[in-house]
Design a protein that fits this description.
The chain is an alpha/beta fold. It folds into two domains: 202 residues, Phosphoglycerate kinase, N-terminal domain (Rossmann fold, 3-Layer(aba) Sandwich), CATH 3.40.50.1260; 201 residues, Rossmann fold (3-Layer(aba) Sandwich), CATH 3.40.50.1260. Helix content is 30%, strand content 20%. The protein contains 15 helices and 25 strands. The strands form eight sheets. It has a six-stranded parallel β-sheet with strand order 9-10-6-3-11-12, with helices on both faces. Strands 14-13-23-24-25 form a five-stranded parallel β-sheet. Helix 4 links the parallel strand 9 and strand 10. The longest helix has 17 residues. The two termini are 15 Å apart. The C terminus is likely disordered. It is an enzyme of class 2 (transferase). Pathway: Carbohydrate biosynthesis; Calvin cycle. Keywords: ATP-binding, Kinase, Magnesium, Nucleotide-binding, Transferase. Its cofactor is Mg(2+).
Length: 518
Amino acid sequence: MAPYTPGDNGGGVDVKVGYSVDDGRGAADLDQRLPLLQYADLQDKIVLLRVDHNVVKKGKILDQYRIDVTLATMYNIVERGGRPIIMTHIGRPFDKKNKTITIKSDDAVDAVVGYLQRKLRIKFVVPQFHAHGSEGIHDIDTSINWLIHDLRSRKIGGIYLPNTRWFAGEEDKGETMERFVVQLAGLADVYVNDAFGSWQSHASTYHITKYLPSYLGLCMQDELVNVKEVLNPTKPFLAIVAGSKYDTKIGPLTAMYARVDKIILGGVMYNTYLCAKYGVKIAGVEDSDIELAKELVEKDKNEGKVLELPNVVETDTLEGRIEGKYRTIYTKVELSFVPICLVQGCFFAGGSHSGSFTFLESLSYLVYGVSQDFKAGNEYKYVVDVDPTSFEDPGVKEVLQGAKTIFVNAVMGLMPHFKDGTSKMDEVIDSNKTARKFFGGGDTLQEFKSLHPGLYHAALDSAKYYLFTGGGTVLKVLEEGDPMKLENVKALMKNAETFGYKPIIGNGKNGRVLPTPR
């Protein structure tokens, strides 16, 4: 709580008329070279806002979280006099191999626009542009000027551009991209990047900063502050990562391995590691990936950071969870020690009994052994999940309970049929009440919400949780070692130099007076 005076905003009146409330947020931990939205002059400006609303599959919103976290940026723009033109990518309509773009309603922004209109009670309009078959949309034509006119006159609340990846220039690297960027820049006065999950250097996230004064949105600011905690975690630091391909994750995995105290692998990434370590074959794992994983196996012989989940689920088919077609297999020998009391030649295993007994031996143990399935040369069908009992393994549980920082970018099983491993993982992580828990975006958040809706919504308001909008971006930051090395972030800092970004806060007498951050 701090006294508020009208003079704090340039009014020149030094009278305390109220107080402001500290919400615990701030930009103090951000690099001072970053141009922040709070200090931009937006009055009567058209603001081109790039967000990451890539939450639509088959025309329906899977999880609105990535939309909701950008609402603060939208409000800030409008409240300070700006008029928003919003854009996002959805899906992967561009086929990199064939160089074709597929435009279909499943990848349209319509579901997002409908959600925003219901949420904000504001009318958005999506412009229509001509598409040239598999070449996508070539140009932003002049018909959009009618919409911009209505936007300025406040007849509509905002313009939402079609899926950016429907445009031929979005992922292009030549003249087509340059033409698209110039056309985008011609729509607006100011550009704001609030798309943490979109770290690739595309036209709408990177090249646009060459032409317009550009700023960092509020969601992006939060993400950059919190990703620093993953880079510099409170120890012990546990990371849980999964992936459908091993070779594409080598860089982030190597960087993460160097930072963690322990790491748990999942998905095909874990299957690949198991093949490399135990000399087995698992369906769906490529030989080339196994060779790559052997380097991690050798490194881990000395450092012992990979925490193995001992029980995994094998299935004969990927068509579903079919009774009799799947089973639990064991990567190593499991020993269970069960306390027993020997009473006059008989024993009671576990449990407690009342009454008077003569103890021949006060305490002993039964040792149950589960044979190891993973032996060199063995071949297995598809390994599609981690058995939930893996998270009850004493060694695994000890690490999960003792961690002070946990980063999760993982779905352990093949959804939706094999979900038990992921569900148990989320439960055990939550049972650690002292750790700071960071969850990656995309599938990780979608499945977290689907499997544990109550826990998910509690996590949104918990100081112990932070949910990133882009897990892949966090991995990229870990690989680079510094969020300021992300290409899109570097572009914003270069833009600040080019356009002379100099925030003046409060009652400055020289230069333009900008409002105190709100």
